[in-house]
C-alpha cells in the first residue's frame, strides 16, 4: 500500500501520512495495552485526522486519484501501528536476540511463500518484469536506505528510547519536503500546506511525555525564582569579624571566643 501510494502522491505527502502511525499506536496502546490516557494526545489525534482529510480533498474528489493515494498511505500507517502494538502485546520488551530471530523467520517465510506470486504475475501478463528497463542504481540505493531504516526502526528500541526512533520519522518528513521542493519542483500551498502543517503539529504533540504538566510547572517555578532573585554585585562579601572568618582563618569560634 505504501509503494502504491508513492505512485500517486508526492513523497512528502506519503511520508507525512505514514508518520501518523504514532497516533494510531497511541490509540491502540490505550485500548489494547491499557497505557495512560493523555488528553493532549487526543488533540494531536484530531489535528492529524484533520490533516489527512485536507490532503484527501486537496485536489477534489471528481476524477482525481489523490483520495485513493491518501487512503492507501493512511491504511499502511494504520497497518504499521497494528503490527507494532501486536508485537508489543505478544513479546513485551523484546531483547535484541528475540527481535533478530523474529525478523529472520519473517525473511525466511517471505522467500518461501512470495516467489510464486512474482512468477504468477509475470507469466499471466499482469505485471511483466522487463529487466533492461529497471533502474538498478536507484533501486539498489533505495533498497539500502530501506534496509537501514528497517533496522533502526525495529532494533532501535532495544538500544535507546523509542521516542528517538519516532523523531527520526518526523525529521524524514522535513527532509523529504526540502528534497521535493528542490529536485521535483513541488510547491506546498493551500490545503496541501495546511494538511501537512496539521499533521506535523499533531506529530509534535504526541511526542510530549505523559507527565508534561509537571515539567511545565517546574520550568515556570524556576523562571519565577530566577526572576525574583536579588541582584548580586561582583564585590567580595563583607568579612564578619565577630566570628573571626578572615581569609579562611578561624581566629574566633562561632560563639565569639578567641581561640
Write the layout of secondary structure elements.
Elements: H1 2-8, H2 11-18, H3 21-32, H4 39-56, H5 66-91, H6 96-123, H7 136-155, H8 162-183, H9 190-206, H10 212-227, E1 245-246, E2 249-250
Helix pairs in contact: 1-5, 2-5, 2-8, 3-5, 4-9
Report on the structure:
The protein has helices spanning 2-8, 11-18, 21-32, 39-56, 66-91, 96-123, 136-155, 162-183, 190-206, 212-227; strands spanning 245-246, 249-250. Helix 2 (11-18) packs antiparallel against helix 8. A hairpin with a 2-residue loop joins strand 1 and strand 2. With 259 residues, the chain is mostly helical. The chain has ten helices and two strands, in the order H-H-H-H-H-H-H-H-H-H-E-E. It has a two-stranded antiparallel sheet with strand order 1-2.
Short description:
The protein has 259 residues and is mainly α. It is built from ten helices and two strands; from the N terminus they run ααααααααααββ. The N and C termini lie far apart (87 Å).
C-alpha Rg (nearest Å): 29 Å
Largest sheet: 2 strands, antiparallel
* Order of SSEs: HHHHHHHHHHEE
- Helix content percent band: 55-70%
Shape: globular
Low-confidence stretches: 244-249
| SS-derived structural category | mainly alpha
Total E-strand runs: 2
- Strand proportion: under 5%
**Separation of the first and last Cα atoms:** 87 Å
List the total number of helices: 10
Mean pLDDT across all amino acids: 79
Which sequence of strands runs across the widest sheet?
Answer: 1-2
